[in-house]
Write a structure and sequence with these properties.
Elements (H helix, E strand, L loop, with lengths): L37 H14 L16 H9 L1 H6 L1 H13 L3 H14 L4 H16 L11 H10 L9 H20 L2 H4 L2
Helix pairs in contact: 4-5, 5-6, 5-8
InterPro entries: RGS, RGS_sf, RGS_subdomain_2
Protein name: RGS domain-containing protein
Pfam family, one: RGS
Length: 192
């Protein structure tokens, strides 16, 4: 989990590996219908910039506007929320308010790794995910138990697209049990 970290750490975007440097008045590219409206973004940036300087904000996933039925289904099933790009965007905005967006970014990075077939790319992505989210030296470290960490350390020498599968499941379960119930009662979800 975020552990009280601010959003100012450089986050690698998962949509094509792009990250964006922002200033107080710039807009996020690929803003979907569920990203904060412009006035809310400005207020939020002013509030955050009082304590820290925002350097980067990762891009939202490209998505289409979901129907009211889809939005309703998100409240019935965490799986349906996570399988829907617009749902992930909204949930990610919520996680950002709780300083635990790193959980979603890790999960998305693992999903991206699972699609990779090139051995060199697998090794590079696995190394990057380890350094960004698993290493105890990382400011974006996710909360994993010792058993899972030990398993990852053993598999790291010869990574496969599924090297982080146990860790990904643990973070998915954490988001489902911990953050999802709060998301459903949040103003972000209720405003939809």
């Amino acid at each position: 989990m975020g552990g009280g970290r601010s959003e100012t750490s450089a986050l690698s975007g998962t949509g094509g590996g792009r990250a964006m440097t922002t200033t107080q008045n710039s807009q996020r590219p690929n803003a979907c219908c569920f990203c904060w409206n412009e006035e809310e973004r400005r207020r939020r940036r002013r509030r955050l910039s009082q304590d820290t300087k925002m350097e980067t904000i990762p891009n939202c996933e490209a998505c289409t506007k979901p129907s009211m039925e889809e939005i309703r289904l998100w409240s019935q099933s965490f799986d349906k929320l996570m399988k829907n790009p617009a749902g992930r965007n909204v949930f990610r905005e919520f996680l950002r308010t709780e300083y635990s967006e790193d959980n979603m970014l890790f999960w998305l990075a693992c999903e991206d790794l699972k699609q990779e077939i090139n051995k060199n790319a697998i090794e590079e992505k696995a190394r990057s995910i380890y350094e960004d989210y698993i290493s105890i030296l990382s400011p974006k470290e996710v909360s994993l138990d010792a058993r899972v960490r030990e398993m990852i350390n053993r598999k790291r020498q010869n990574p496969t697209p599924h090297v982080f599968e146990d860790a990904q499941l643990q973070i998915y379960t954490l988001m489902h049990r911990d953050s999802y119930p709060r998301f459903l009662s949040s103003s972000i979800y209720r405003s939809l």
